Automatic annotation (TrEMBL):
Organism phylogeny: Bacteria, Pseudomonadati, Myxococcota, Myxococcia, Myxococcales
Gene Ontology MF: a single term: oxidoreductase activity
Natural source organism: Anaeromyxobacter dehalogenans (strain 2CP-C)
InterPro entries named among the record's database cross-references: Mtrc-MtrF-like_dom_II/IV, Multihaem_cyt_sf, Multiheme_Cytochr_ET, Paired_CXXCH_1
Domain Doubled CXXCH motif: 129-160, 181-214
Keyword set includes rRNA-binding: no
Signal peptide from the UniProt entry: 1-19
NCBIfam families: paired_CXXCH_1
Name this polypeptide is given: Cytochrome c family protein
Length: 346
């Protein structure tokens, strides 16, 4: 018995990847584990037919799917057939459709995304499932999270380079709390960044992290930045515009990204930050032409008025908080006394 098992044990030791692959895959990998396997396409491109056994065994599909569940057009004698594809991109597009068999919900989301819209217009470079997730080496999404931004950099290299130098990008390697591309742009139903409605939603997007008291206290940041924004003239104007059904395309007020930046956000203490005190005049002047050096002082930033910070504004707020109830209460009392007098004198 031991003699019979020994060859099998030696085979597994020599090919550890096979241990995690269903028996149905062995026939396929018998040929496709050869790195020299290629196919010449009509476009002149070479299509690699190689499948890395180790990578496939460790993938999320390695122990779950048979090859033919994705390669539905392949039969046992397909080695003698011909591929119907002209280019490598044709291959990618064809198998993009296979993903919806299991991942229909996410596939449906892609139909509302900017990548699908661009592809529908004839752009072959638009990202498809395998461009982001891979093919035979698919791992669980976001493991590690930094992999997401690196993956997006394949097409969006310039934005990724800017992000890597930002306060978020520099901290991404060491902190799981930092937003990566999909936290803001979403994954499958990615919004067109040129869409004005995306900009109008930035307070909501930024607020997912920046209103979390527990998370912000961890980094010594205020969790009231969104509430203070919404209570000032910028936030009120932006909120009113967003509620309008036929709102103008041009935005009426600044949102988070207009002041802080998009991919290039820096700490407010960083000399290169657009919201650092020394740079505020230039930032304000993007909308308020001719803004003087004292112009930014009219804005409370994201501070709430206190006796120490903006004491005059704080005093006015306190005064009105006392005056308004007093006036309303006095008016109600006057009406009540008048009615009582009318009843008594009848």
């Amino acid at each position: 018995m031991i003699r019979r098992l020994l060859p099998l044990l030696l085979a597994f030791a020599a090919n550890p990847a096979w241990a995690g692959i269903p028996a149905e895959q062995e026939d396929c990998l018998g040929c496709h584990s050869d790195p020299s396997q290629t196919f010449d396409l009509p476009s002149g491109e070479k299509l690699s037919l190689y499948v890395d056994q180790d990578a496939f065994a460790k993938s999320v599909h390695g122990e779950a799917l048979r090859c033919t569940e994705c390669h539905t057009d392949k039969t046992s004698d397909h080695a003698t057939g011909e591929l119907k594809f002209k280019t490598r991109r044709d291959v990618t597009r064809a198998y993009y459709e296979q993903c919806k068999g299991c991942h229909f919900a996410n596939y449906t989301k892609t139909l509302d995304g900017v990548h699908y819209a661009v592809m529908a217009k004839g752009n072959d470079k638009a990202a498809l499932c395998v461009d982001c997730h891979g093919a035979h080496d698919i791992s669980r999404p976001g493991q590690p999270r930094t992999r997401i931004s690196k993956m997006c950099s394949g097409c969006h290299a310039e934005e990724a380079d800017v992000y890597a130098k930002s306060v978020h990008g520099r901290a991404a390697e060491s902190s799981p709390d930092v937003p990566v591309c999909t936290d803001c742009h979403r994954a499958h139903d990615t919004t067109d960044p040129r869409d004005g409605q995306l900009a109008m939603r930035t307070p909501e997007i930024c607020g997912r992290c920046h209103t979390d008291e527990k998370l912000m206290s961890k980094y010594g940041l205020s969790s009231k930045v969104v509430s203070t924004y919404l209570s000032d003239f910028h936030g009120m104007a932006a909120t009113l515009q967003r509620k309008q059904k036929n709102a103008p395309d041009a935005r009426l007020a600044a949102v988070c990204t207009d002041c802080h930046g998009v991919h290039d956000i820096q700490s407010s203490k960083d000399p290169s930050s657009t919201v650092m005190a020394a740079n505020l005049q230039k930032t304000c002047a993007k909308c308020h032409q001719g803004a003087s050096a004292s112009f930014p002082k009219a804005w409370l930033s994201h501070y709430e008025p206190t006796p120490q910070k903006a004491p005059l504004v704080w005093g006015v707020q306190v005064f009105y908080k006392m005056l308004i109830p007093f006036m309303v209460g006095g008016l109600v009392l006057q009406i009540a006394l008048h009615l009582w007098r009318v009843v008594v004198n009848r």
